[in-house]
Design a protein that fits this description.
A: MetI-like fold; flat; B: 5-stranded mixed sheet; 11 helices; 22% strand
Chain lengths: 220, 284
């Protein structure tokens, strides 16, 4: 039988897939989550109600249920042919958009109404004031919360093994089946997740420190 | 009065929105129902299957496999697909000049992937069952196995006493052993099913005392026990369950040429000494 350690590079390659899942998911989450946050604060009553329902839906369902719902139900029913990786990225992104929207929403609200009113007094439109005054500050404030979202999504990405996405856990499972040796592969997979989670969070922290507005928000 | 008027004025847009949303949803439901009824009338004739004719040399064919099913299909340290089924498929690819790509796929979704065209066929220890045969075409069978009830070596109870003990019996979730457990429970046997992710975990549950027995199949147990003699020494087969089951290759319905090619190639290799060599190589 092949020694377990010989399989470790194969498991390590799963990191690339995990990065793909997390990177894609966070990007989709950001692109949808930010407009949701703005809509929830500045939108009409109807838009607020719709966005609230969206956020409530994606925050209420377990990730595995969402994965199965979209992979087996929603995408086939609507004629979209997405492979397991693409489907997982979209689902992670939609779910993350609900969480990210609340991070951005909190950051925007924390700035208060005064800055927006001051910008309006200077002659800016409401939209320009949001994009040029509110968001540059709110995005910086939201970075600590956002790094938390990165860590959560990295760990949650392992659940895509249920669709056979070749990320760290799926590969580890294959190795365990091939070698009949669970301890080292799962221990190694755990180590990879620690490195990816810790490393990514550290990078976000560096970005936060460099872009931090002195006096407005504290150190991490 | 003024307060009431204000309240009404505030509520009106929301009511209007809800009404519009209600009409929209209603329209979608009616549209979907009409569409579903009209679909059979306007559906075009089904297109010709991808491999209705025998695939020619150089054709790329995608092989779906469960990478967690040794020794039939598994991966080596470089991530390359290996196993008994892989060797046989490679032999066929060489014989016909095909270019075969081995693609790991989640077992629960593998038939759907064949039907959707993500995969062209499955050769991965797939049992030929009536339910699956409603969706895919199967080749001639190439391997047969039987289900077994395994217990700890020191167990003294009979099969019926074990199955009526009210204790846990471990199975692999979604596998044919799981179906057997359900059938036995429906027949009135009194035990609790412990569904686990693999047969290996089911055996571990029995060794740890979390289950009094395991329903397994000989396709897994025979090679597994050869690789794990210490586990084999602690367990024994108490009885067999049901009749023989067979493995076969699955293709899309209509892929007549591909299925025929498999059938002829399987019959040829099974009649050659190479077949036994391959079985010996993988311990099945």
């Amino acid at each position: 039988m092949t020694a377990v350690w010989e399989y470790l590079p194969y498991i390590t390659w799963g990191v690339a897939w995990t990065f793909g899942l997390v990177g894609g998911g966070l990007a989709i989450g950001f692109m949808i989550g930010l407009p949701i946050a703005i809509g929830q604060i500045h939108g009409s009553e109807e838009i607020k109600a719709l966005l609230e329902a969206y956020v409530w839906f994606f925050r209420s369902l377990p990730l595995l249920v969402l994965l199965f719902l979209f992979y087996w139900g929603v995408f086939p029913a609507t004629g979209f042919k997405l492979d397991p990786l693409a489907c997982s990225i979209v689902v992670l992104g939609l779910r993350s958009s609900a969480y990210q929207s609340q991070i951005f929403r909190g950051a925007i609200i924390s700035l208060g109404e005064a800055q927006l009113l001051a910008a309006r007094a200077l002659g800016m439109t409401r939209l320009r004031a949001v994009f040029h005054i509110v968001l540059p500050q709110a995005l910086r404030i939201s970075l600590p919360g956002w790094s938390n979202e990165y860590a959560i999504m990295t760990k949650d990405s392992a659940i895509t093994f249920a669709l056979g996405v070749l990320e760290i856990l799926t590969r580890t499972r294959y190795v365990v089946m091939a070698t009949h040796e669970p301890l080292l592969p799962y221990f190694f997979a755990g180590g990879l997740f620690i490195v990816v989670t810790y490393g990514g969070t550290k990078i976000v922290n560096v970005v936060y420190e460099r872009t931090r507005i002195p006096g407005l928000v504290g150190r991490m | 009065m003024i307060t009431e008027a204000r309240k009404l004025a505030k509520e009106t847009p929301r009511r209007g929105f809800l009404k519009s949303a209600g009409i929209g949803v209603g329209g979608l439901v009616i549209g979907a129902a009409v569409g579903a009824m009209a679909a059979p009338l306007i559906s075009p004739p089904p297109p010709k299957a991808k491999f209705a004719d025998m695939p020619s040399a150089g054709t790329k064919i995608i092989h779906g496999m469960d990478a967690a099913y040794p020794p039939f299909t598994e991966i080596d340290p470089t991530g390359k697909a290996v196993g008994f089924d892989i060797d046989v498929v490679e032999w066929m690819a060489k014989k016909y000049g095909w270019e075969v790509e081995h693609k790991p796929w989640e077992w629960g979704a593998i038939i759907t992937a064949v039907l959707a065209g993500d995969l062209d066929f499955v050769a991965s220890g797939m049992t030929h069952t009536a339910a699956r045969a409603e969706k895919v075409w199967f080749s001639v069978p190439y391997y047969s196995y039987i289900h077994q009830l395994l217990v700890l070596a020191e167990e003294t109870r009979t099969r019926d006493e074990i199955l009526n003990s009210g204790e846990y019996v471990a199975v692999q979730l979604g596998a044919t052993s799981d179906e057997w457990a359900e059938k036995l429970l429906k027949k009135g046997f009194n035990f609790k099913k412990l569904g686990l992710d693999s047969y290996e975990l089911a055996f571990k549950a029995a060794l740890d005392g979390r289950a009094v027995a395991v329903i397994s199949d000989s396709a897994f147990t025979v090679p597994y026990f050869k690789k794990q003699p210490d586990v084999a020494a602690k367990l024994r087969v108490l009885s067999t369950i049901g009749g023989d089951f067979t493995y076969a290759y699955a293709t899309r319905v209509g892929d007549y040429g591909l299925r025929n090619a498999f059938n002829h190639a399987l019959e040829e290799i099974m009649a050659s000494p190479e077949w036994q060599d391959l079985k010996d190589k993988w311990g099945i």
